[in-house]
Design a protein that fits this description.
The structure is a single chain. By secondary structure, the protein is of the alpha+beta class. A 6-stranded mixed β-sheet has the order 19-18-20-21-22-23. Strands 1, 2, 3, 5 and 9 form a 5-stranded antiparallel β-sheet that branches. A hairpin with a 2-residue loop joins strand 13 and strand 14.
Length: 448
């Protein structure tokens, strides 16, 4: 008996594409044809330090004079300069960086002094404040200049207030130019502690899934994994840099890694990196082929609407049927390109972030194994996953494909559902939760 239009592969493919044309934004479609090698060619000044950077400082204290003794010595950060419980004012100080400091980098600082107000900014060991005038420092601001990948933290002890700042009922820190102390209260700054902290990030790379599309805000797997990471001792100051771009293919991610200055700088600070890419290597050639088949411009702002209109026309099924061999050829070529790009993506990440812990995800299949379209897309997904699961590649694999395929829960993992008319292939909030759990269970692949 002849299959109905709805149950035919071409029919389902038509409906699938029609829904996709209404789901995805123009930006995602534009990414199909964007030049992955476009980048800024502005001159980049190297402000990366080659080793650990520290700080040292010395000062002038009421009734004590120059400290620490002998004169000319320094306190090594984050040691205390000054005193507590003695009622003595800090009158002046010098601060300088230690270690292998880039030639254009430095530390600048500005003090607020009794009867004088904010004095001029000084830097790199020059004296800030006064001596011989009996004037107290009341507040200070400290900044790093020309030093990517580091931050300056500082805290102190203030007359009548004690240790400041107080954050969550504990003695905390201010950083990077924030004011420490008081103005207008006539209170002396009695001591200060300063430290240089190397900026470390959890950097997420990839496409719309890593971006968090379709998840409840804050509940994408990247956010969940980040919240877990900062709960681990030593990661308290870890910052999140989500550099994922909806619509990106493997070639576009590779271009980002090779050419985007912000990405290159951020990866140099990365302690943990996650990568989720490959789905658009399958979707993008489908969209591009259909654009050509229907004579549409995929770079047009109206492309999603134009494609939806074309797919709704009576002859759309015949156009898709005629385009199917080309779609298959182009998807195969794009998947093959993933196999070429992937080792370069991994090698580039390792070059930019040689000490980082790298976790990569396999692709899940949003289509049920009982659906006719499963046979169309799953082989391409498996080919990409085989490349991702290359043994001995030096990263951990979060096997999302298997986690989704063996899921026994009641909450849907993807928005895709023929019967409700929702064909968005992105993960639900529950799906993102499972992807996050897969990251926690990620393992190194040593053999097939």
């Amino acid at each position: 008996m002849k299959k109905s239009f709805f149950k035919s592969i071409t029919g389902r493919f038509l409906i699938f594409l029609l829904m996709l044309s209404m789901i995805f934004s123009t930006g995602v479609f534009a990414a199909v044809n964007s030049d992955s090698n476009e980048s800024s060619h502005d001159t980049i000044i190297d402000t990366q330090a080659n080793g650990d950077i520290g700080v040292q400082y010395r000062g002038h204290v009421q009734n004590k004079g120059d400290v620490p003794l002998p004169v000319g010595n320094f306190v090594t950060g984050p040691g205390e300069l000054g005193s507590q419980g003695e009622g003595l004012r800090l009158e002046g100080l010098r601060i300088e960086l230690t270690g292998t400091v880039p030639s254009d980098a430095g530390i600048s600082y500005q003090v607020h002094v009794q009867n004088k107000g904010w004095m001029g900014v000084v830097e790199n060991g020059n004296f800030a404040g006064t001596t011989g005038e009996g004037l107290r420092i009341e507040a200070i601001k400290i900044n790093l200049t020309g030093l990517d990948g580091y931050e300056v933290y500082y805290r102190g002890h203030v007359q009548n207030k004690g240790n400041i700042p107080v954050i969550d009922d504990a003695w905390g820190w201010v950083k990077n130019g924030a004011e420490l102390g008081t103005t207008g209260e006539s209170l002396r700054l009695e001591s200060i502690e300063i430290k240089i902290v190397k900026t470390e990030t959890y950097t997420a790379l990839g496409d719309s899934i890593a971006y968090g599309m379709s998840a409840t805000p804050g509940s994408g797997y990247v956010n969940l994994f980040y919240n877990d990471l900062i709960g681990v001792s030593g990661n308290e100051d870890l910052t999140l840099a989500n550099l994922a771009v909806p619509g990106y293919t493997s070639s576009q991610l590779l271009g980002q890694l090779q050419s985007d200055p912000a990405t290159i700088t951020t990866l140099g600070q990365a302690k943990v990196i996650t990568v989720s890419v490959g789905g658009n290597n399958i979707l993008a050639p489908v969209i591009a082929t259909l654009a050509a088949a229907f004579q549409l411009d995929p770079t047009s702002p109206t492309f999603p609407t134009d494609l939806a209109t074309a797919l709704a026309q009576p002859g759309a099924k015949d156009v898709i049927t005629a385009a199917m061999p080309t779609i298959q050829t182009n998807v195969t070529a794009s998947v093959t390109q993933f196999g070429t790009d992937w080792p370069q993506i991994v090698a580039t990440i390792k070059t930019l972030a040689p000490q980082a812990d790298i976790v990569v995800t396999t692709l899940y299949d949003p289509i049920s194994s009982q659906d006719p379209l499963f046979a169309v897309f799953d082989p391409a997904i498996q080919t990409i996953n085989t490349a991702i699961k290359t043994p001995g590649a030096g990263y951990r694999v979060a096997d999302v494909y298997t986690a989704f395929a063996t899921y026994q829960g009641s909450e849907p993992l993807v928005n895709f559902n023929w019967y409700t008319g929702n064909l968005d292939p992105h993960p639900t909030t529950a799906g993102h939760e499972l992807i996050y759990q897969s990251h926690l269970n990620a393992v190194v692949i040593n053999s097939y």
